[in-house]
Structure formats: structure tokens, C-alpha cells
Amino acid sequence: MPQFICTACGTQYPDSAAPPAQCLICEEERQYVPPRGQTWTTLDALRIDRVNGFRQYEPGVTGIGSQPQFAIGQRAILVQTPGGNVLWDCISLIDDATVSLVNDLGGLKAIAISHPHFYTTMAEWARAFDCPVHLHAADRDWVMRPDPALTFWDGETLKLWDGVTLIRCGGHFPGGSVLHWAGGAEGRGIVCAGDILTVATDRKWLTFMRSYPNFIPLSAREVEAIGKAVAPFAFERIYGHYFDRVIERNAKQVVEKSVARYVAAIEGKRGY
Ligand SMILES: [Zn+2]
Ligand SMILES: [Zn+2]
Known about the structure:
7-stranded mixed β-sheet; binds zinc ion; 7 helices; 6-stranded mixed β-sheet
């Protein structure tokens, strides 16, 4: 039996003879059901009309995303360290070429995902690379396809290895997390932010939302908490959730000024 994938958010559901009646992720206010109605695909169908592309941003940091874009359109990031590789965030399409290429780059020791919109086909990736998937426990109710590889962490940070740390920021989702790698950007540090901190169109600022498609803002307190969560970490660069959304330099200061701008805006102040 196929495991159907929602074409709007990319989430894969367990075996079923017919497509699920609804996508719970899309029915919720942070996502949306397209006006044409919910439609479904499968991994086999995705493999026919899409391929994955790779972009090496810097040594040890490689983006992986589908062409043409699928569902939300995010790309994942392969972070390579001497102690093993982490896949940050996930995409629906996994195919033979992707498995071969990632294995040639050292395989995966773990997968970690920022929030439920990017859970996608995480169970397929975990099986292909025989590795665990780290998810924040606060969001476990949003797992649509349970799997023994899924492991849930609690609290504010989870240290992996070689300077890789998962940081819970909350905001967009209660368990919304980012990945910090101290070894990135020639040792100045990077943050892979998903859309927990979203790189704006100008690549000079970040923004923060409960829902991006439905334009639902977060409170000042929630956004200040995101700033506080990443404040103890050193980093030069932030990778957003699309291929081209990267803040190359001074990203730590960009977080500080972006939190201040957001809070001023939502409190009705100007002149930031
Ligand atoms: Zn969906
Ligand atoms: Zn999201």
C-alpha cells in the first residue's frame, strides 16, 4: 500500500489504500488547504518528475532541495563534521541519486528537524541512512507517520557532537528549533534556522511569524525568547530554509537588530 504525501505541505502519512481524508498539518492555522482542495502524491510519483539539487555553501555545509520545488519548497542542509554528518531539516523527495551522493559525502549519523512543516518523509530518510531523527518533544503530536527512528528531546538544548547543538527557540511552533555548528564559517559559527528565524527577502533582516502563509504574527515576548535562546552562541552566518536565503556576515548582530525591529513594530513604535 502506498504512503500518501500531501502536495501542499509535503507530509507523508502511513500506509493506506486510499489517500487520507485530510491533512492535519494543512488544516491547522499555520498552514493551509489550497483553494483547489487537498491533493496527494507518492514518493514513486515524485521520483518521476523531480530531482534533487545540491549546493555547497562552504566546506561541510551543503544544501539539498528538489527541482522543481515541491510543497513548501524548503531545502535541507547536510552538515559534515569529523564525528559524523547531520541532515538539518528534511524534504519529501529521497531517491537513489540522493542516497548515493550523501553516502559518498559520509552518510548520516542523525537527522534533526526544526518543526513539523519539515517532517515530510523523515522516516524514509532515517531508514535509508539507518540513523535516528531528533525532534523536539513539544511538537510530537504533529508526527503523522510514527517510526522507531524518531527520538524526542526535551528542554532548551541538545548537544550532538563536534560543536553541533540543537537549540529550542519556540515561536512558530513550541518546539521550534535551530541547529548551531561552532565549526561553520571557518570556526566563527553558523545557525541553520529553518523558518524559526526567517531570512527576509532583502537578506539583511530576519523575521518571525506564527504562520507565514496566513500572516499571523508572534507576540513581542515570543520573539524576544527566540533572541535569548540563540544569544549564548557565537555565529557569523545564518542559513534560512530556501536555497538563496542566507545572511553571510554579522548574523548575530542581525538577530539582535531584527528582534528589536520586530518588537518595536508589533508595539506600534517606529524609528528603529
Ligand atoms: Zn499537508
Ligand atoms: Zn513552518
